[in-house]
Amino acid sequence: MKKLILVGLVLLSGACNVREPALDFRRIPEEKLSGEIVDIGDSVLAPRQIFDTRDHFVIFDDNKNDHFLKYFSKATGGLDFKFGIRGNGPNEFIMPRIIPSGEGIGVLALNKFVFLRVEGQELIKEEKKIRNREKVTGANCLFFLDDSRVLYTKSSESQFHVLDDRSGRESAVDAYPLPYENKYPRYFVNNVVFDAHYSYHENEDFIFAAYKHVPVVSLIPVPEFQDPLHVYLNTGDKNEIVRKDNHWIYDDPIYYYTFTDVSSGFCYALFQHADKSALRENKQKSEIHVFDFQGKMVRRLGFDIPIYHFAASGDDTELYALSLNDDFLPEVWKYDL
Q1: From CA 9, how far away is CA 216, in angstroms rounded?
Q2: How far is residue 159's CA from residue 223's CA, in Å, rounded to a whole number?
Q3: pLDDT (tens digit, 9 = 90+) per residue, 290-321?
Q4: What is the DSSP track for 212-252?
Q5: Is domain 4-336 classified as CATH 3.40.50.720?
Q6: CB atoms within 10 A of CB 65
Q7: In the chain, where does DSSP find H-type helix?
Q8: C-alpha–C-alpha distance, residues 262 and 121, integer Å
Protein backbone atom coordinates (compact mmCIF):
# COMPACT_ATOMS: atom_id res chain seq x y z
CA MET A 1 0.00 0.00 0.00
CA LYS A 2 1.36 3.43 -0.91
CA LYS A 3 1.03 6.56 1.22
CA LEU A 4 2.07 10.20 0.65
CA ILE A 5 1.95 13.64 2.20
CA LEU A 6 1.08 16.69 0.21
CA VAL A 7 1.45 19.88 2.20
CA GLY A 8 0.07 23.25 1.15
CA LEU A 9 1.64 26.42 2.53
CA VAL A 10 1.56 30.13 1.75
CA LEU A 11 4.45 32.56 1.42
CA LEU A 12 4.88 35.22 4.07
CA SER A 13 6.42 38.32 2.54
CA GLY A 14 9.70 39.03 4.27
CA ALA A 15 9.36 35.91 6.42
CA CYS A 16 10.63 33.11 4.15
CA ASN A 17 13.56 32.50 1.89
CA VAL A 18 12.24 30.47 -1.04
CA ARG A 19 14.60 28.14 -2.88
CA GLU A 20 12.44 27.63 -5.96
CA PRO A 21 10.66 30.34 -7.99
CA ALA A 22 7.13 30.89 -6.76
CA LEU A 23 4.28 29.68 -8.94
CA ASP A 24 2.16 32.43 -10.47
CA PHE A 25 -1.02 30.41 -10.14
CA ARG A 26 -3.16 33.14 -11.74
CA ARG A 27 -1.63 32.22 -15.11
CA ILE A 28 -3.59 28.98 -14.93
CA PRO A 29 -6.99 29.78 -16.50
CA GLU A 30 -9.86 29.81 -14.03
CA GLU A 31 -12.68 27.42 -14.93
CA LYS A 32 -16.02 28.81 -13.76
CA LEU A 33 -18.24 25.95 -12.63
CA SER A 34 -22.00 26.12 -12.93
CA GLY A 35 -23.83 24.03 -10.36
CA GLU A 36 -27.28 23.19 -9.06
CA ILE A 37 -28.78 23.21 -5.57
CA VAL A 38 -29.51 19.80 -4.05
CA ASP A 39 -32.74 19.81 -2.07
CA ILE A 40 -32.20 17.99 1.23
CA GLY A 41 -35.24 19.50 2.97
CA ASP A 42 -34.92 20.25 6.66
CA SER A 43 -33.05 17.07 7.58
CA VAL A 44 -29.81 18.97 8.25
CA LEU A 45 -29.85 22.11 10.39
CA ALA A 46 -26.16 23.00 10.83
CA PRO A 47 -23.95 21.31 8.20
CA ARG A 48 -20.28 21.68 9.07
CA GLN A 49 -18.63 19.34 6.56
CA ILE A 50 -19.52 17.25 3.51
CA PHE A 51 -17.87 14.02 2.31
CA ASP A 52 -18.16 11.74 -0.69
CA THR A 53 -18.59 7.98 -0.82
CA ARG A 54 -19.32 5.96 -3.92
CA ASP A 55 -23.14 6.25 -3.85
CA HIS A 56 -23.73 8.91 -1.20
CA PHE A 57 -22.70 12.37 -0.11
CA VAL A 58 -22.42 12.52 3.66
CA ILE A 59 -23.00 15.60 5.81
CA PHE A 60 -21.53 16.16 9.26
CA ASP A 61 -24.32 18.00 11.09
CA ASP A 62 -23.49 20.25 14.04
CA ASN A 63 -27.05 19.96 15.37
CA LYS A 64 -26.49 18.68 18.92
CA ASN A 65 -30.02 17.23 19.15
CA ASP A 66 -29.81 14.81 16.22
CA HIS A 67 -27.48 12.27 14.60
CA PHE A 68 -24.29 13.97 13.44
CA LEU A 69 -23.81 11.96 10.18
CA LYS A 70 -26.45 11.98 7.41
CA TYR A 71 -26.06 9.81 4.28
CA PHE A 72 -27.87 11.14 1.19
CA SER A 73 -28.30 9.12 -2.00
CA LYS A 74 -26.61 10.66 -5.02
CA ALA A 75 -29.24 9.08 -7.25
CA THR A 76 -32.36 10.32 -5.45
CA GLY A 77 -31.20 12.95 -2.96
CA GLY A 78 -33.06 11.07 -0.23
CA LEU A 79 -31.76 10.50 3.30
CA ASP A 80 -30.72 6.83 3.46
CA PHE A 81 -28.85 6.56 6.77
CA LYS A 82 -28.30 8.49 10.01
CA PHE A 83 -25.52 7.69 12.46
CA GLY A 84 -23.99 8.88 15.71
CA ILE A 85 -25.24 10.69 18.80
CA ARG A 86 -23.03 13.02 20.83
CA GLY A 87 -22.74 12.16 24.51
CA ASN A 88 -21.04 10.07 27.20
CA GLY A 89 -23.17 6.93 26.93
CA PRO A 90 -21.90 3.52 25.76
CA ASN A 91 -23.21 4.04 22.22
CA GLU A 92 -22.49 7.76 22.07
CA PHE A 93 -19.50 9.81 20.92
CA ILE A 94 -17.51 12.42 22.84
CA MET A 95 -16.37 15.26 20.55
CA PRO A 96 -16.53 13.29 17.27
CA ARG A 97 -14.28 14.14 14.32
CA ILE A 98 -14.65 12.75 10.79
CA ILE A 99 -11.77 11.09 8.91
CA PRO A 100 -12.54 10.03 5.31
CA SER A 101 -10.96 6.69 4.43
CA GLY A 102 -11.29 5.30 0.91
CA GLU A 103 -14.96 4.72 0.19
CA GLY A 104 -15.79 4.74 3.89
CA ILE A 105 -15.74 7.21 6.77
CA GLY A 106 -14.01 7.05 10.13
CA VAL A 107 -15.48 8.65 13.25
CA LEU A 108 -12.76 9.51 15.77
CA ALA A 109 -14.02 10.51 19.23
CA LEU A 110 -12.32 10.80 22.60
CA ASN A 111 -13.86 7.49 23.65
CA LYS A 112 -13.79 5.37 20.47
CA PHE A 113 -13.05 5.03 16.75
CA VAL A 114 -15.67 3.60 14.38
CA PHE A 115 -15.27 2.91 10.66
CA LEU A 116 -18.42 3.11 8.50
CA ARG A 117 -19.07 1.73 5.02
CA VAL A 118 -22.19 1.08 2.96
CA GLU A 119 -22.84 -2.40 1.61
CA GLY A 120 -26.01 -2.74 -0.41
CA GLN A 121 -28.85 -1.33 1.68
CA GLU A 122 -26.97 -1.50 4.98
CA LEU A 123 -24.61 0.81 6.85
CA ILE A 124 -21.84 -1.40 8.29
CA LYS A 125 -20.18 -0.25 11.53
CA GLU A 126 -16.79 -1.56 12.66
CA GLU A 127 -15.26 -0.32 15.92
CA LYS A 128 -11.47 -0.15 15.84
CA LYS A 129 -9.60 -0.25 19.14
CA ILE A 130 -6.65 2.07 19.75
CA ARG A 131 -4.70 0.54 22.61
CA ASN A 132 -2.46 3.54 23.16
CA ARG A 133 -5.26 6.08 23.04
CA GLU A 134 -3.57 8.44 25.50
CA LYS A 135 -0.74 9.04 23.02
CA VAL A 136 -3.02 10.24 20.24
CA THR A 137 -5.38 12.33 22.40
CA GLY A 138 -5.34 15.85 21.04
CA ALA A 139 -3.95 14.80 17.66
CA ASN A 140 -4.29 17.41 14.93
CA CYS A 141 -4.68 14.64 12.36
CA LEU A 142 -4.72 10.86 12.64
CA PHE A 143 -4.55 8.17 9.94
CA PHE A 144 -4.15 4.40 10.01
CA LEU A 145 -1.22 3.39 7.81
CA ASP A 146 -2.02 -0.32 8.22
CA ASP A 147 -3.55 -2.65 10.83
CA SER A 148 -1.14 -1.56 13.56
CA ARG A 149 0.62 1.68 12.59
CA VAL A 150 -0.95 5.08 13.25
CA LEU A 151 0.35 8.38 11.84
CA TYR A 152 -0.53 11.55 13.72
CA THR A 153 0.59 15.10 14.47
CA LYS A 154 -0.12 17.44 17.35
CA SER A 155 -0.56 21.18 16.89
CA SER A 156 1.84 21.89 19.77
CA GLU A 157 4.74 20.02 18.13
CA SER A 158 6.78 20.19 14.94
CA GLN A 159 6.90 16.43 14.45
CA PHE A 160 5.09 13.62 12.70
CA HIS A 161 4.59 10.58 14.92
CA VAL A 162 4.28 6.97 13.78
CA LEU A 163 2.87 4.74 16.53
CA ASP A 164 2.93 0.95 16.47
CA ASP A 165 -0.30 0.38 18.33
CA ARG A 166 0.49 -3.29 19.06
CA SER A 167 3.82 -2.74 20.80
CA GLY A 168 3.29 0.85 21.92
CA ARG A 169 6.59 1.85 20.30
CA GLU A 170 6.66 5.26 18.72
CA SER A 171 8.96 7.15 16.38
CA ALA A 172 8.92 10.85 15.64
CA VAL A 173 10.30 12.73 12.64
CA ASP A 174 10.84 16.47 12.56
CA ALA A 175 8.42 18.22 10.28
CA TYR A 176 9.83 20.10 7.34
CA PRO A 177 9.65 23.68 8.61
CA LEU A 178 9.20 26.66 6.37
CA PRO A 179 12.48 28.51 5.83
CA TYR A 180 11.63 31.32 8.22
CA GLU A 181 14.23 33.86 9.21
CA ASN A 182 15.77 33.23 12.60
CA LYS A 183 14.08 36.29 14.12
CA TYR A 184 10.81 34.36 14.41
CA PRO A 185 10.59 32.01 17.43
CA ARG A 186 10.27 28.30 16.70
CA TYR A 187 7.01 27.87 18.60
CA PHE A 188 5.40 30.41 16.28
CA VAL A 189 6.69 28.60 13.20
CA ASN A 190 5.42 25.29 14.60
CA ASN A 191 1.97 26.74 15.17
CA VAL A 192 1.83 27.96 11.56
CA VAL A 193 3.05 24.66 10.12
CA PHE A 194 0.42 22.57 11.87
CA ASP A 195 -2.54 24.93 11.44
CA ALA A 196 -3.51 22.82 8.45
CA HIS A 197 -6.03 20.50 6.84
CA TYR A 198 -4.93 16.96 5.97
CA SER A 199 -6.27 14.27 3.63
CA TYR A 200 -4.93 10.74 3.37
CA HIS A 201 -4.92 8.64 0.19
CA GLU A 202 -4.98 4.94 1.03
CA ASN A 203 -3.70 3.82 -2.38
CA GLU A 204 -0.81 6.29 -2.56
CA ASP A 205 2.14 6.89 -0.27
CA PHE A 206 1.02 10.44 0.56
CA ILE A 207 -1.03 12.67 2.81
CA PHE A 208 -2.37 15.90 1.31
CA ALA A 209 -2.20 18.91 3.61
CA ALA A 210 -2.97 22.56 2.94
CA TYR A 211 -2.36 25.42 5.34
CA LYS A 212 -4.49 28.27 6.52
CA HIS A 213 -2.02 31.10 6.77
CA VAL A 214 1.06 30.21 4.84
CA PRO A 215 1.14 29.61 -0.28
CA VAL A 216 3.39 26.19 -0.55
CA VAL A 217 2.36 22.73 -1.61
CA SER A 218 4.63 19.86 -0.54
CA LEU A 219 4.80 16.19 -1.46
CA ILE A 220 6.28 14.23 1.46
CA PRO A 221 6.50 10.41 1.38
CA VAL A 222 5.06 8.52 4.35
CA PRO A 223 6.34 7.09 6.58
CA GLU A 224 9.91 7.82 5.41
CA PHE A 225 9.42 11.63 5.14
CA GLN A 226 12.30 11.87 2.67
CA ASP A 227 12.88 14.13 -0.35
CA PRO A 228 9.82 16.40 -0.10
CA LEU A 229 8.78 18.40 -3.14
CA HIS A 230 7.70 21.99 -2.40
CA VAL A 231 5.70 24.23 -4.73
CA TYR A 232 5.40 27.84 -3.55
CA LEU A 233 2.53 30.06 -4.63
CA ASN A 234 3.08 33.73 -5.39
CA THR A 235 0.07 35.60 -3.98
CA GLY A 236 1.66 39.06 -3.78
CA ASP A 237 0.45 39.48 -0.20
CA LYS A 238 2.31 41.23 2.59
CA ASN A 239 1.09 39.11 5.46
CA GLU A 240 3.43 40.48 8.12
CA ILE A 241 4.20 38.94 11.48
CA VAL A 242 4.37 41.48 14.33
CA ARG A 243 5.13 41.34 18.04
CA LYS A 244 2.27 42.53 20.27
CA ASP A 245 1.85 42.16 24.04
CA ASN A 246 4.82 39.76 24.15
CA HIS A 247 3.26 37.51 21.48
CA TRP A 248 4.13 36.99 17.82
CA ILE A 249 0.96 37.32 15.76
CA TYR A 250 -0.18 37.99 12.23
CA ASP A 251 -1.11 41.57 11.46
CA ASP A 252 -4.61 40.99 9.99
CA PRO A 253 -3.98 37.35 8.95
CA ILE A 254 -4.99 36.08 5.54
CA TYR A 255 -6.77 32.75 5.19
CA TYR A 256 -5.61 30.74 2.21
CA TYR A 257 -6.46 27.03 2.24
CA THR A 258 -9.37 26.01 4.46
CA PHE A 259 -10.06 22.39 3.45
CA THR A 260 -8.64 19.52 1.39
CA ASP A 261 -9.80 16.34 -0.31
CA VAL A 262 -8.22 13.59 -2.43
CA SER A 263 -9.56 11.39 -5.21
CA SER A 264 -8.20 8.51 -7.26
CA GLY A 265 -6.12 10.85 -9.37
CA PHE A 266 -5.91 14.34 -7.85
CA CYS A 267 -5.61 16.44 -4.71
CA TYR A 268 -8.03 19.31 -4.09
CA ALA A 269 -7.57 22.35 -1.85
CA LEU A 270 -10.16 25.05 -1.09
CA PHE A 271 -8.49 28.45 -1.57
CA GLN A 272 -10.22 31.46 0.02
CA HIS A 273 -7.56 34.22 -0.04
CA ALA A 274 -9.55 36.34 2.40
CA ASP A 275 -9.19 37.97 5.79
CA LYS A 276 -11.27 37.04 8.80
CA SER A 277 -13.90 39.75 8.26
CA ALA A 278 -14.55 38.62 4.66
CA LEU A 279 -15.03 35.03 5.82
CA ARG A 280 -17.28 36.14 8.65
CA GLU A 281 -19.44 38.17 6.27
CA ASN A 282 -19.44 35.39 3.63
CA LYS A 283 -17.79 37.63 1.02
CA GLN A 284 -14.75 35.55 0.06
CA LYS A 285 -14.03 34.53 -3.55
CA SER A 286 -13.67 30.76 -3.34
CA GLU A 287 -11.50 28.69 -5.66
CA ILE A 288 -10.46 25.06 -5.60
CA HIS A 289 -6.91 24.32 -6.67
CA VAL A 290 -6.36 20.88 -8.19
CA PHE A 291 -2.91 19.25 -8.02
CA ASP A 292 -1.63 16.03 -9.52
CA PHE A 293 0.50 13.62 -7.49
CA GLN A 294 3.70 15.30 -8.71
CA GLY A 295 2.67 18.61 -7.11
CA LYS A 296 1.69 20.32 -10.37
CA MET A 297 -1.37 22.58 -10.24
CA VAL A 298 -3.50 21.37 -13.15
CA ARG A 299 -6.80 23.23 -12.66
CA ARG A 300 -8.28 26.31 -10.96
CA LEU A 301 -11.99 25.84 -10.31
CA GLY A 302 -13.99 29.03 -9.77
CA PHE A 303 -17.43 29.52 -8.22
CA ASP A 304 -20.12 32.20 -8.39
CA ILE A 305 -20.82 31.73 -4.68
CA PRO A 306 -18.59 31.48 -1.61
CA ILE A 307 -18.24 27.91 -0.37
CA TYR A 308 -16.89 26.73 2.96
CA HIS A 309 -16.57 22.98 2.51
CA PHE A 310 -16.55 20.49 -0.37
CA ALA A 311 -16.09 16.86 -1.41
CA ALA A 312 -14.83 15.54 -4.74
CA SER A 313 -16.04 12.19 -6.02
CA GLY A 314 -13.51 9.37 -6.14
CA ASP A 315 -13.65 9.25 -9.94
CA ASP A 316 -13.27 13.05 -10.38
CA THR A 317 -16.60 13.46 -12.18
CA GLU A 318 -18.51 15.59 -9.68
CA LEU A 319 -18.12 17.78 -6.65
CA TYR A 320 -20.45 18.63 -3.75
CA ALA A 321 -20.08 21.88 -1.82
CA LEU A 322 -21.55 23.60 1.22
CA SER A 323 -22.43 27.28 1.00
CA LEU A 324 -24.40 29.97 2.82
CA ASN A 325 -26.99 32.00 0.92
CA ASP A 326 -27.64 35.73 1.38
CA ASP A 327 -29.70 34.96 4.49
CA PHE A 328 -26.84 32.85 5.90
CA LEU A 329 -28.86 29.66 5.49
CA PRO A 330 -26.88 26.55 4.44
CA GLU A 331 -27.16 25.08 0.95
CA VAL A 332 -25.76 21.99 -0.79
CA TRP A 333 -24.53 22.46 -4.36
CA LYS A 334 -23.55 19.87 -6.95
CA TYR A 335 -21.06 20.55 -9.76
CA ASP A 336 -19.97 18.43 -12.70
CA LEU A 337 -16.21 18.24 -13.20
Answers
A1: 4
A2: 12
A3: 999 988 999 999 999 999 999 999 899 999 99
A4: S---EEEEEETTT--S-EEEEB-------EEEETTEEEESS
A5: no
A6: 8
A7: 133-136, 186-193, 276-280
A8: 26
